[in-house]
Amino acid sequence: MLDIRSDTVTKPSAAMRQAMAAAEVGDDVLDGDPTVSRLEARVAHMLGKEAGLFFPTGSMANMTGLAVHAALGSEALLDEDAHIIHGEMAGAAALLGVQVRLVRVGEGRTVMNADDLRRAIRAPSKHDPAISVICLENTHNGAGGKVTSVEDMRAMREVAREHEIPVHMDGARLWNASATTGTSLADFGDCADTVMLSFSKGLGCPVGAILVGSAAGMKRAHAVRKRFGGGMRQSGILAAAVLYALDANLDRLPQDHANARLFADAVAGANGASVVPPDSNIVMIDLADGVSSAAVVARAEQGGVRISEWNPTRVRAVAHLDVNAADMARAAEVVRGAIEECAAEAVR
Ligand SMILES: Cc1ncc(COP(=O)(O)O)c(C=O)c1O
């Protein structure tokens, strides 16, 4: 079975497990774990930030990032398709008492830009909640791994600055945005006050994410993480996997992007589908009227390929560390066949 539902399905390699087994560890809650501290300093440096904080998940790191900026009863601005809106169990409302407001993305685009943001920011008044944070996502999962250029990120940062609103970046796959554009992580990092990056996706680690930002911000984040139950003990075991992945897996992300393009090109033109051309490792396929995602996913699985149902008319496939070009070519053949069979049945 080829599993390309997500880049989170990868299994730690033998070499990664060896690095984990050999990790020097300590009690991170009591004294700091030496391997975690090394990882936090290394990634903070890569992003041009003062400090970093290791988390078990991206969702917890995103919520903590929002908590650093947003007071109870304030408002967070996010684009309407953001992962924080759709994939994190309404954490901003349930855990932080923060109202999220959706920024409408302009006609013909799938990710937010500075004009969208400008339209969404209202003048302070006695009636409206204060906007405490703007959240940007790069790459954008819901838009099909779409990359926002550093120029567009800077323009949004500028709008935020004009209104003195801090910016949090959901950079779960910022690694991929950097691989696609050649823009350094530090240049992207400069476009936000806090950035979350995930280790359990393209980098192939079993667990983990990081929040980076100012030293003062990360001090506040440390307390929030503890409150969320995210204080971990000998977490150097997990951080060692990430240090290994930064050395071994970061530079190979362009291969995933090439494999995603290969897959997309082979599926494009299938009767009954339109493929969103991938910017990175995610391929979204929009199905024609009457063709259901559930049916296509089930049919592909019968052919030995697992893809995911993104919504009732859109399926998603993701290239990752554990599939090569030949796997993606085979997967494309199966998925194309599944779509065409389902489309033929739909018109019958
Ligand atoms: C863009 C984005 N942000 C945040 C997350 C949350 O990460 P986690 O699953 O580690 O909580 C994901 C996970 O898929 C994601 O795609």
Give your account of this protein's structure.
The structure is a single chain. With 348 residues, this protein is of the alpha/beta class. It folds into two domains: 14-248, Aspartate Aminotransferase, domain 2 (3-Layer(aba) Sandwich); 252-347, Aspartate Aminotransferase, domain 1 (Alpha-Beta Complex). The protein has helices spanning 14-21, 34-46, 58-69, 83-86, 91-96, 114-120, 150-162, 174-181, 185-189, 215-227, 236-248, 253-267, 293-302, 325-347; strands at 2-3, 51-55, 75-79, 99-103, 131-137, 167-170, 194-198, 209-213, 273-276, 282-287, 305-306, 308-311, 314-318. The two termini are 30 Å apart. The relative contact order is 0.17. The site of pyridoxal-5'-phosphate has 13 residues, from α3.
Give me the Rg, rounded: 21 Å
Tell me the number of structural domains. 2
The fold-level CATH name of the largest domain is Aspartate Aminotransferase, domain 2
* Mean pLDDT over all positions: 97
Percent of residues in helices comes to 40-55%
Count of DSSP E strands? 13
Report, as a whole number of angstroms, the end-to-end distance: 30 Å
SSE order in H/E notation?
EHHEHEHHEHEHEHHEEHHHEEHEEEH
Task: Please work out how many helical segments DSSP would assign.
Answer: 14
Poorly predicted segments: none
User: Main β-sheet, in a few words?
Assistant: 7 strands, mixed
Please name the fourth-level CATH homologous superfamily of the largest domain.
Type I PLP-dependent aspartate aminotransferase-like (Major domain)
Shape: globular
Structural class: alpha/beta
Give the spatial strand order of the biggest sheet: 2-8-7-6-5-3-4
Examine the secondary-structure arrangement and name the CATH architecture of the largest domain. 3-Layer(aba) Sandwich
Binned strand content: 15-25%
Q: What's the CATH C level of the largest domain?
A: Alpha Beta
The distinct ligands, each listed once, are:
pyridoxal-5'-phosphate
